[in-house]
Amino acid sequence: MEAAGARALAAARRRGRRLQAPATLKEQRDPQPGRRVPQRRIEEDQEEAVFREVVSFTPDPLPVRYYDKVTTKPISFYLSSLEELLAWTPNVEDGFNVALGPPECRQPPLSSRRPRTLMCHDMMGGYLDDKFIQGSAAQNPYSFYHWQYIDIFVYFSHHTVTIPPVGWTNAAHRHGVCVLGTFITEWKEGERLCEAFLAGDERSYQAVARQLVLIAQFFRFDGWLINIENSLSLAAVGNVPHFLRYLTTQLHQQVPRGLVLWYDSVVSSGQLTWQDELNERNRVFFDSCDGFFTNYNWREEHLERMLGQAGERLADVYVGVDVFARGNVVGGRFHTDKSLELIRKHGFSVALFAPGWVYECLEKGDFFQNQDKFWSLLERYLPTHSICSLPFVTSFCLGMGTRRVCYGQEEAVGPWYHLSAQEIQPLFGEHRLEGNGRGWVKMHCCLEDAWNGGSSLLIRGLIPPEVGNVSVRLFSLQVPVPPKVFLSMVYKLEGPSAVGVALELTTGDAGSCHVGGISALSAETSSRRSPRPLRVPPTKLAKWVGRCGQQLSGGWVQRCYEVNLRGCLLQALFVNFSRPPGSQEEENFVCRLGEIQVVDASSLLTPLPQVQAVTVSQVRWQPAASEGESGPAGLRLSCTLRWAYLPPHVRCFRIHCCRGSGGDSPCRAPSEPERPALLGLAFVNRYRIVDLAVAPAEPGRDGRVEFLVEPIPKEGFLVPRAEWGRAAMLYSTPRT
């Protein structure tokens, strides 16, 4: 990508953009009347690059595939034909759509024999609000947050090559979930496409396979669902197994934990005839790739027949369940559990198709309740997963909200939707005490308040008189604990409740964990611990955790813990609610969790890399509406920021700006400097600023806007402003 960026920079120079870096800022002659010669110079110092721009309203066009043609916002895209697929090569503009990295570690791994759960997301043709890579102002968007039940996420559409929008890939990977795109052919056009690459010699289908591997490798998703839903000639169908084997082999070599699945449609004769099972007519495709996704109109006798066909690969058969309940299906909608009961009874994996039914067909205002109801009905058939790496940090943000909050401080008001911003989600559900069952705890996601992001975790519960406390498991973990661990919990109680709130953790003997899987831990080797909160932060960590034990803004409270454990395995995190001292009454409580952190304390002592080489390019100016009859018309600025930073260290970047009317830096004025305005979040080393309102430059003076790139480390703490990346733009109007 860096090489592509250098090529684009060189191309910009050839077009007359003249991005240069002289030792000092020099003036240029005015452009000839009627001719736009964009003027840009860079002045480098140790902290900031300064770019010069002459305002012009004739911008260079941006490629429509990568940018929304109205707003110039970067968008995710698909490929509509074989020609587009074969012609695709990595482009500098593709950089916006690249995921942060591969899936996070989780246990058990996808390679285990445990039956898996696949979620196939098919919603109204795809590429809706989720196509806007940097987010949008969508109201009531679809959100998925039950990731701990899911092994594989497929983004499905009816375009030939469906590249998953990067927001989905980032959200899934953060939870350790594998992400697949879709390669689909349909109808007569599909027949022609398949003949073009399957009916000839091996060079044709190998070229297609190599392109699919290259796309998955470049955008950092994990593989493909292959869905051929049209008839094939004998020559073409004869090459399908070779195509699948070549694609699977190449993908395994280039993409860690890469996966190729085949959908039950075409049979070995080339006919399009869905079987609703794995059998002798389609087994050759199953034998050529990683798994088989059945059609939906099966009955239990289909499952019984498949036991012999699948052999030791039961988990590689994904029995399709259409949540919309179209056709002759066992169960769907709020009866989907009937299908899962039979599938799990026989030991197969499940492929849930279009669980967005709860959003598409039911009341949007009741979406969260309906979503929770749907997944709670399936819970007994959906084994959960364990997080197995540190740092583990979450603010419970859903990647959406009605406002933006940063550590208790409101930064912006208004709806927003940004899938990449979704944080790790807990094990949603309800826990009831054994015995009389009167004590209970239930968790919900909630947009009404947030500590960081757009939402928090709302926990309601009841402590009956006969017990002292209730607790609920937030996360399942399988983490070998470093010698010293720092933990933090930010919470607040609603109303006058004096219920005690404490973080608890479960540990086991790390020696019982072996490579390749997790052995069963007996009750004797596992224990729940409640660490004692710190009254003051650890001395060496005070720079990051100086608010331990303090009452924070908005009623939030932070509790910090430092735990020394050796040879232990961290297995679970709980939150415990205890009755106030002296209370004998039934205690109802409502608590919000704003953040949980589990961090290797030594990692906080390691210096962070700095954001470097911030550049400004792809500038577009537009006139804004006049402020009034006597006021000057404003300007709207769009441009692209790029910078250098090592991605493994970062959780995301927060992009800010300071706007001024003169050459002095508005972010660094000696008295009362302007507070930077948050523009948005970036999850790659670039950000497209769109329609930023700036004041027009006064005659004889430069206008100035300064951009700041704030890295947020994986540990989740705020970095001092002096360590942010900076770039400034000086702009002027052309002389007449």
Automatic annotation (TrEMBL):
<dbReference type="InterPro" id="IPR057882">
    <property type="entry name" value="ENGase_C"/>
</dbReference>
<feature type="domain" description="BRCT">
    <location>
        <begin position="281"/>
        <end position="375"/>
    </location>
</feature>
<comment type="similarity">
    <text>Belongs to the glycosyl hydrolase 85 family.</text>
</comment>
<comment type="function">
    <text>Endoglycosidase that releases N-glycans from glycoproteins by cleaving the beta-1,4-glycosidic bond in the N,N'-diacetylchitobiose core. Involved in the processing of free oligosaccharides in the cytosol.</text>
</comment>
<dbReference type="Pfam" id="PF03644">
    <property type="entry name" value="Glyco_hydro_85"/>
</dbReference>
<dbReference type="GO" id="GO:0005829">
    <property type="term" value="C:cytosol"/>
</dbReference>
<keyword id="KW-0378">Hydrolase</keyword>
<dbReference type="InterPro" id="IPR032979">
    <property type="entry name" value="ENGase"/>
</dbReference>
<protein>
    <recommendedName>
        <fullName>Cytosolic endo-beta-N-acetylglucosaminidase</fullName>
        <ecNumber>3.2.1.96</ecNumber>
    </recommendedName>
</protein>
<feature type="compositionally biased region" description="Low complexity">
    <location>
        <begin position="1"/>
        <end position="11"/>
    </location>
</feature>
<keyword id="KW-0963">Cytoplasm</keyword>
<feature type="region of interest" description="Disordered">
    <location>
        <begin position="1"/>
        <end position="43"/>
    </location>
</feature>
<dbReference type="InterPro" id="IPR001357">
    <property type="entry name" value="BRCT_dom"/>
</dbReference>
<dbReference type="InterPro" id="IPR005201">
    <property type="entry name" value="TIM_ENGase"/>
</dbReference>
<dbReference type="GO" id="GO:0033925">
    <property type="term" value="F:mannosyl-glycoprotein endo-beta-N-acetylglucosaminidase activity"/>
</dbReference>
<dbReference type="Pfam" id="PF25529">
    <property type="entry name" value="Ig_ENGASE1_C"/>
</dbReference>
<keyword id="KW-0326">Glycosidase</keyword>
